[in-house]
Amino acid sequence: MRKILGAVFVSLDGVMQAPGGPTEDPTGGFKFGGWLPHVGDDAIEKRIDALFAREFDLLLGRRTYEIFAAFWPFAKGENKTISEKFDRAAKYVVAHGNTPLEWKNSHRVANLDALAEIKRGDGPDLIIQGSSTLYPQLLEKGLIDQLTLMTFPVILGSGKRLFGDRTPAGTMRMVEHEVTPGGNIIATYEPNGTVQIGSFPSPEPSAAELERRKKMEAGTW
Question: 41 phi and psi, to 5 degrees?
Answer without folding.
Answer: -150, 180
